[in-house]
Design a protein that fits this description.
By secondary structure, the protein is of the alpha+beta class. The strands form 2 sheets. Strands 2, 3, 4, 6, 7 and 8 form a 6-stranded antiparallel sheet that branches. Strands 1-5 form a two-stranded antiparallel ribbon. A hairpin with a 5-residue loop joins strand 3 and strand 4. It is globular. The chain starts with 8 loop residues before the first helix and ends with a helix.
Length: about 210
């Protein structure tokens, strides 16, 4: 699930977590006030708290938090959420295991893993049923929904981060036959992608300039 259900929650979510200059920590009263008024923003953190840190990028499931409309060649429409399931299963870390690992261990682990063999995920589609939310990304669809196999994702190499960092991800750029649902968070996200990339490049450029 996503951490907000409406675009207007973004600012409040971040502001409530800004550190107080006097203590270096968030103001707990402000954080509680926001959480009490926006209980749906606590669902993602509750999920993280109840699940272990992944041991590898290759050993964790990935989901879409928004619904997609798939349209067949005959014009039939079906709302789905997708998921990528690691072919070799999921694997998490204990707190003790985490203590001995560097902060960027996932990057190194994934590169080492690819040197041994490609990483494979099963691509699946979860079909919606009447009553499922199509616009709220904080809500998870029930596990008993029909899930169909749709293909495989095979990763056999990586590229330098310097190459990936200049790519702008626009969520609403989709292939023919797939449309976005009407979720307000999803429809708002594209407006932030290009400015975000532009600002990050300016920040990097400024940091790299000689005085």
């Amino acid at each position: 699930m996503f951490f907000v259900s409406r675009p207007e929650q973004f600012e409040g979510f971040l502001t409530a977590r800004l550190p107080d200059p006097a203590t270096g920590n968030p103001d707990l009263s402000k954080l509680k006030a926001f959480n009490d008024a926006n209980s749906d923003t606590l669902l993602q953190s509750a999920y993280f708290a109840s699940n272990p840190v992944p041991a590898s990028y290759a050993a964790v499931k990935y989901w879409s938090v928004n619904a997609f409309e798939f349209i067949s060649a005959q014009g039939q429409s079906q709302l789905v959420r997708w998921e990528f399931v690691p072919e070799k299963g999921t694997l998490g870390l204990t707190d003790d295991e985490m203590k001995s690992l560097p902060t960027d261990f996932l990057v190194g682990e994934f590169g080492n893993r690819l040197e041994q063999a490609p990483v494979v995920f099963d691509f699946k589609l979860q079909l919606d049923e009447k009553g499922d939310t199509l616009t709220d990304p904080t809500k998870v669809w029930p596990e008993n929904r029909l899930v169909l196999p749709a293909g495989k994702l095979v990763i056999d190499r990586t590229r330098p981060s310097s190459v990936c960092d200049v790519i702008t991800f626009i969520p609403l750029v989709l292939p023919n036959g797939i449309k976005p649902s009407a979720g307000p968070v999803w429809l708002a996200r594209s407006a932030f992608c290009v400015p975000s990339l532009s600002r990050s490049h300016r920040a990097v450029s400024s940091a790299g300039k000689q005085p």
